[in-house]
Amino acid sequence: FMSDFESWTDSLPRCEKSGIGVVTNGKYVGGIMRQSHDFMHRCLNLSQNGVQFYGIFCAYNGDQRASKYVSNRLAYEIFFENPITVDMMPEQIQDALKTKFSTVAKLYNQDINELLLKRLLRKEESTEESRDAVEKINSKLRAGTTVLAAVIVEDHIYVINCGNSRMLALVVDNGNSDAWQLNEEHDLVNQDEVDRLHKAGVSTENLLRPTRGVGDCFRGLCFAENEEFIGANGPPVISTPDVYVYPVDEFHCSHLLICSDSVVKAIEEIGIEPGNINQFLLSELIREKEHSQTKSCISLAQAVLDSLTRQHRESAGQQYNSQHDDMSLVLASLGEIMGAAVANTQRATMTTTDATNSLSLEDTIDNDDTNDPQPYVDCYGFDNKPEAAEVRAELEKLFIKITKKNIAKDSIEEEREEPEEHSYL
């Protein structure tokens, strides 16, 4: 099931008015950044039939199975299983998104139940091989993912929040800029989450982030097996999302930004106070927009993360234990996306408001494919540059040189592969 939906998701049309920026995890060793594990995030920026879907799914506990499944299945639910359409009313869409997310979580938990049954059977065997098999199953059970997604239908933004990533609506203008946070992170800074945990009899003293997500079996569905939660009457980590809805006037908000919690953490580590993080992201975006030669969202998203990575590295100095996790950022141009909807419906009458209260697979996904980000070269507007002809000529020379070198290399390899009976010639 997972392998089918992985290729299916990749084939869906992308939103051209948005972009994804990524930076892989790294640890600074001797002044050099070294990647310590595969890239663990899944990022989407899809558009179909007037519906846009953006999301960041951050896998944790060392396995990507949860983020792969949830990202693909949620996209399927939104676009194909009783799909979200522009004809639906805002209340209908909000209710439908809650139901769809609940369906995704239940389907994933069904897969967990199958794993639990297999683990029980292997435990009864009491052999070295069965113990290894149990440990492999446990690693799959530990897999979890946070979810932060935005669905845009005409002049409304619907936010699906289950975890500790962050979403902002921004006015990106050097003379008139502002930022609104559209969700509350589910972590121990959130008083509502702390109160929920206390009511469940869970001590927050050593509890790690996040406090909501899909999967994470030993802090969720099977929390009773965990010695840390003896006496608790409810799971520390739940998969219940907050779903917000905002009417948006594109004349007030120009961009939508979604970033992983690791981006927020890196900003804190370079010395920015928590209350100034949103403004820091806004100022970084404005600066990159002012100085970049291209205004594409993919370039701006990547430029903001590259700048943050440089600042984080500089702040680390000679600290050999300094490191950062995978970082992801999705940026969408609300002005362009909402403009068409406003022109068609003439319904945009409210500005974005601050979010202070919520509204309340076993082997089929095991493969060797990684989700490592691919390098990119942004050639937007290249032909309009005065030096374009000169650069193109140099590239053609380089291409000819590389081609000749490869031909020579291939001929040498062919000679080496001649049958042994002809080696005396």
From TrEMBL:
SMART domains to which the protein is assigned, alphabetical: PP2Cc
The record's listing under InterPro entries reads: PP2C, PPM-type-like_dom_sf, PPM-type_phosphatase-like_dom
Q: Which Pfam families match?
A: PP2C (PF00481)
UniProt cross-references to CDD domains, sorted A to Z? PP2Cc (cd00143)
At the top level, the lineage of the source is Eukaryota
The GO terms describing molecular function are: protein serine/threonine phosphatase activity
Q: Which residues form the PPM-type phosphatase domain?
A: 19-334
Name the record gives this protein: PPM-type phosphatase domain-containing protein
**Lineage, broadest ranks:** Eukaryota, Metazoa, Ecdysozoa, Nematoda, Chromadorea
